[in-house]
């Protein structure tokens, strides 16, 4: 990771991978970073190229979209 990386939390994806949510900084830009970390066989989780980094000012829009996805999933009976 370049510059700064502050882990906020992690969500399991499967037995070998997790999605980590972090605030980061890259070349002076503040970002929200969602990145897949995988166990590459050594017992540790390492960052992969799979992920998403958005300027931090996009965070409210991302949260809004995720809340709408949650509401729609609940409406469809996919989650409680």
Overview of the molecule:
With 80 residues, the chain is α+β, with helices and mostly antiparallel strands. It has a single domain, classed as Transcriptional Co-activator pc4, Chain A (Roll), CATH 2.30.31.10. A four-stranded antiparallel β-sheet has the order 1-2-3-4, with no helix packed on it. A hairpin with a 2-residue loop joins β2 and β3. The radius of gyration is 15 Å and the shape is flat. The model has no long low-confidence stretch (mean pLDDT 94).
Itemize the secondary structure elements and their pairings:
Blueprint: E1 4-12, E2 17-26, E3 29-39, E4 45-55, H1 59-75
Antiparallel strand pairs: 1-2, 2-3, 3-4
**Uncertain spans:** none
Strand content: over 45%
Gross morphology is flat
- For the terminal residues, how far apart are their CA atoms? 36 Å
CATH homologous superfamily identity: Transcriptional Coactivator Pc4, Chain A
Number of domains: 1
Count the strands? 4
Compute the number of helices.
Answer: 1
Strand order of the largest sheet: 1-2-3-4
Largest sheet: 4 strands, antiparallel
């Amino acid at each position: 990771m370049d510059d700064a990386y502050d882990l906020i939390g992690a969500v399991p994806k499967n037995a070998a991978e997790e999605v980590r949510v972090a605030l980061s900084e890259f070349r002076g830009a503040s970002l929200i970073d969602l990145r897949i970390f995988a166990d590459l066989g050594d017992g540790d989780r390492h960052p992969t190229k799979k992920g998403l980094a958005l300027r931090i000012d996009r965070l409210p829009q991302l949260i809004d979209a995720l809340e709408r996805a949650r509401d729609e999933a609940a409406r469809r009976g996919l989650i409680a």
